[in-house]
Amino acid sequence: MSFDINKYEPVIGLEVHAQMKTKSKAFCKCSTAFSAPPNTNVCPVCLGHPGTLPVLNKNLVEFILKLGLSTNCNIRERSIFARKNYFYPDLPKGYQISQFDQPICEGGHIDLDGKRVGITRIHMEEDSGKSIHDFASDESLVDLNRCGVPLIEIVSEPDIRTPKEAFDYLTILKQLVVYLDICDGNMEEGSLRCDANVSVRLKGAKQYGTKCEVKNLNSFKNVSDALEHEIERQISVLEKGGKVIHQTMTYDAKARATSPMRSKEEAHDYRYFPEPDLVTVKIDNVWREKVKASLPELPEEKAKRFIRDYNLPEYDAAILTQDRAIADYFEEVCKEVEVRSYKTASNWVMTEVMRVLNEENIEIEGYWIKDRNLSSLIKLIAEGKISNNIAKEVYQEMLAVKDQDDTRQHPTYIVKKKNLLLVSDTGEIEKIVRKVIEDSPKEAERYRNGEVKLLGLFVGKVMKESKGKANPQKVNELIISILG
Ligand SMILES: [Zn+2]
After folding, report:
1. Residue 47 CA to ligand 1 centre (angstroms)
2. If you measure from the C-alpha of residue 23 to the centroid of ligand 1, how many angstroms do you get, rounded to a whole number?
3. Is residue 121 a contact partner of residue 103, using CB atoms and an 8 Å limit?
4. How far is the CA of 125 from the centre of ligand 1 (A)?
5. What is the pTM of this model?
6. 189 C-alpha to center of ligand 1: Å?
7. 220-239 helix and 163-179 helix, angle to the nearest 10 degrees
8. Beta-strand relationship, 115-126 and 105-112
9. Strands 273-274, 82-85: pairing kind
10. Ligand 1 center to residue 442 CA distance, Å?
11. Per-residue pLDDT tens over the stretch 440-476
């Protein structure tokens, strides 16, 4: 492109829908289970039969309070529900219960690295059903299991300026909902859905440009890719002297382009009005404080504690606390090792454990090496019984035993079976050292004449001769004393 993209500043706001992990739906007792056969998790309430009344799920309120309190929102003492009216085959009631002008959480923020993104509001609503069009070309099917499944919508201020910031914001938000155990955070499966409002303006301009909404971004990567393309599209429209038209766009990941979906329905098109069937939600101090007290340690606090308690660098603490379950695993490993081995434990979890998680595409819950077995491996290194290289070999053997409770996964068992213990017997090592020195008389001479850097060469030869099993510390000491 020939124009200067740097003249412009993108302005981005995100709307994220998160499906809550409550067992039952938002306003009835139907199950929220994902894989049930179509139209089995339904009842007269979520099917919108006349004469039925919705009853609010208390867990949904507690879940949204947890997120609201963790993102520094003001909690409205009295909030109400509204009906969002629209006609669609997968919406049997003809309206969706949501919150409109009195949402339960408002005015919070999420801090990215060096940047604060405001949260305009977080509100509760229910999901619609699902239309399925791909069975036959001339018919559509409707599955209403998802009708009434509880969602919360998190609306950010237009504080985001780059696709990277949008990505970071989503990463932190996902981390939060997973830590709080209110949403499984799976974007690919639709538990987190993101729409983005994007506009561009000349740098320094006070007024926002005309925004477009990019809908249904179903992965983190799609969000930043779609934003990049939409920003470029809008800039190129402006550079050609045109005007950006307010419209809804979809992103085609294959074509790597955004295209218009339908002309934007304004909020008033939905004809919101207060839901007459539900009472006001009242949050008193006692309830709010009770939820506050139940909040788990959040990633930021956890990272600070890891730096303090395990004496870890900031980098390690940040990586280890990204996932609550990985952080727990690390702490379990540390319970069994000495203080001086905490950093070694961190290295093992960050490299060897996470490498396996990536390769196998699994979460730590599915990782099959027992924390206690990893602790034992680290203890063997700390006690000088095996070298780092041998530890890697032992680890490979451990990985091959998929059953956690199988004693063959235990490092001590493997070390014994494969005869991998380091040789610390001075007499045995001394024999090898003497042989190596005899075989390299010239180097020995040079070492004696002050070329001490040759020590490494001798150590290497001894280690090779011992097939990596000589205790390196002993080897060093012996070479120095024999040559010296
Ligand atoms: Zn129901």
Report:
1. 7
2. 12
3. yes
4. 15
5. 0.82
6. 22
7. 150
8. antiparallel
9. antiparallel
10. 87
11. 899 889 998 888 888 889 999 988 888 888 888 888 8
